[in-house]
Specification:
The structure holds two protein chains of two kinds. By secondary structure, chain A is an all-alpha fold. Helix content of chain A is 73%, strand content 0%. Chain A has a domain at 94-254 and 277-375. Chain A contains 21 helices and no strands. The N and C termini of chain B lie far apart (79 Å). Classes of the chains: A mainly alpha, B mainly alpha. Chain A binds chain B through residues 97-98, 101-102, 104-105, 107-108, 111-112, 115-116, 118-119, 122-123, 126, 134-136, 138, 203-206, 208-209, 212-213, 216-217, 220-221, 224-225, 345-346, 359, 362-363, 366-367, 370-371, 374-375, and chain B through 1, 3-9, 11-13, 15-16, 18-20, 22-24, 26-35, 37-38, 41-42, 44, 93-94, 96.
């Protein structure tokens, strides 16, 4: 009888707490959303499963010596997110940006969502007694507005590792919800006439320009802001590998195998940071709310800046491409294309929106570098 | 500015204004560099006057009225538009045909015959 009791005590069934049960429930819901509904399955499956594993009592996967503990070092030390940036760089075409340099400014305007949320988080900390965000935590929450998963994870792992779980989940959820969140904001802030604007065809960009671009941007940005070196450096290296055209095998590897390998490792370890004790707090709810705010404000300021450029260009720039200034490549561009085409079926905004879209990636990496400089 | 221990709203505002200024400045400089790219690497191609396309006419046939060929083309366009519409389920109004090019025959005659037979059998089945 004693043996039976001892065995029972050693099982997870006896040790499980109600919070862990809730977390397992959340993990299962995410798995359902990923597999059945197809929401970002590539990320959500590993994240949800990591969440499931870490909330199994007595498994000890995240304790020193556990498998996930070691895998998590890649996230904690800021290795995986820049590697993802390497892969993203290898898959990004900066051609539309090079062809239309003005569109870069839209990518800058959309970063306002980050700083608006930063102020919002500090404000909540001051007025709500049950919410507390320190400066680095406020910065980590705000970066959700950059709509750039790897950047958010990179900054959070440096500044507020405890918030990694909720921030990753908020950031990736909103990125998946781009087609739902952005169109109403775009329509509310522009007139029908503005949304119908057809833009001039982009000039062709030579291979030489595409090769020089990543080198120059890397040199200039890293000299200006050394703290952004990891992200910008890897992004531009990935792009140079692709544009150089002389290392097709490396391009192929970074675009595919490496991307998937790092995604699995990053996903499972980020999920593993969603431990019940850390996750089920008032902060998590405010992170989810602030994340949505960050994302919406970023979209709105992008569109408003687009309106300004519409005025200044004498009606040549369609303001809805400003919404693509939040990163979320290429989803935000596709949404701009779709909304534009609804208003005017012969409108093709996709390539024009790609300019602000990839500028948004550079912009949010710069913003992350700045926040890192202030708070690390 | 020591921000590690806690941050006040006014410090937050300073960080915001400074950071947004730097983000803008960085991207403005990149934008200027790219404008320089345009003048350094890109020479606008001179627009050649568009030559009027001469319709290929088989030497053996005598075409008395070119209007007919144009008419036939329109017919072809509408047939292709209808086929695309049927295949994709989109309404014809949403399909914009900009260009139709004849692809030179690549597959051998026997393959064409087989394909036609397949299509015919399919049609018979319905």
């Amino acid at each position: 009888m004693d043996i039976l009791q001892e065995f029972w005590q050693s099982t997870g069934f006896a040790a499980i707490t109600y919070k862990e049960v809730i977390m397992i429930g959340i993990a299962l819901t995410f798995l359902y959303l990923a597999i059945k509904k197809g929401y970002e399955p590539y990320l959500l499956i590993p994240i949800a499963f990591g969440m499931l594993l870490v909330n199994m009592p007595l498994g000890g996967l995240m304790e020193e010596g556990g498998l996930l503990y070691y895998l998590y070092q890649g996230t904690d030390l800021g290795i995986y997110p820049p590697l993802i940036f390497l892969c993203v760089g290898a898959g990004t075409d900066f051609g539309p940006l090079i062809a239309n340099p003005k569109s870069i400014l839209l990518g800058a305007a959309a970063q306002f969502g980050i700083f608006f949320t930063f102020i919002g988080a500090i404000f909540l900390d001051k007025i709500l007694p049950f919410v507390s965000f320190s400066g680095p935590e406020a910065a980590s929450v705000a970066i959700i507005g950059g709509a750039d998963g790897p950047t958010a994870l990179f900054l959070t792992s440096r500044l507020a590792p405890d918030l990694l779980g909720p921030i990753a989940i908020a950031a990736y959820s909103y990125m998946a919800l781009v087609p739902i969140i952005q169109p109403p904001i775009m329509r509310a802030l522009t007139t029908k006439e503005q949304r119908q604007v057809k833009m001039e065809q982009l000039r062709p960009v030579s291979k030489k320009e595409k090769i020089i671009f990543p080198i120059i941007v890397a040199i200039f940005t890293i000299l200006l802001l050394p703290s952004a070196a990891a992200l910008i450096g890897m992004l531009m290296l990935g792009n140079l590998i692709k544009e150089s055209g002389v290392v097709p095998k490396l391009t192929e590897t970074t675009q595919n195998s490496l991307m998937y390998i790092v995604t699995i490792l990053l996903g499972i370890t980020v999920g593993a940071k969603a431990e019940a004790e850390l996750f089920l707090t008032a902060e998590t709810l405010s992170i989810i709310a602030l994340g949505l705010l960050a994302f919406s404000v970023g979209t709105a300021t992008g569109v408003l800046f687009g309106r300004l450029m519409y005025k200044l260009s004498g009606g040549k720039i369609n303001p809805i491409i400003g919404a693509a200034g939040v990163s979320a490549v290429p989803m935000a561009s596709r949404v701009a294309q779709k909304v534009g085409q609804e208003e005017n079926p012969s409108n093709f905004l996709l390539m024009h929106a790609m300019g602000p879209n990839v500028a948004g990636v550079i912009g949010s990496a710069v913003a992350a570098g700045l926040l890192l400089m202030f708070f690390a | 500015m020591n921000l590690q221990d806690g941050i006040s709203l006014s410090e937050g505002l300073i960080v915001t204004v400074f950071s947004m200024a730097i983000v803008f400045a960085t991207l403005v400089v990149i934008s200027l560099i790219l404008t320089g790219f345009k003048s350094a690497f890109y020479k606008e191609e001179k627009k050649e006057p568009v030559k009027k396309g001469v319709l290929p006419v088989n030497e053996n046939t005598v075409v008395e009225n070119t209007e007919e060929i144009v008419d036939n083309d329109e017919e072809l366009v509408s047939v292709i538009a209808a086929a695309i519409s049927a295949a994709t389920g989109q309404s014809v109004e949403n399909i914009y045909i900009r260009n139709i090019k004849r692809v030179s025959q690549a597959s051998p005659v026997w393959a064409m015959a087989g394909r036609q037979e397949g299509i015919y059998n399919n049609l018979k089945g319905h």
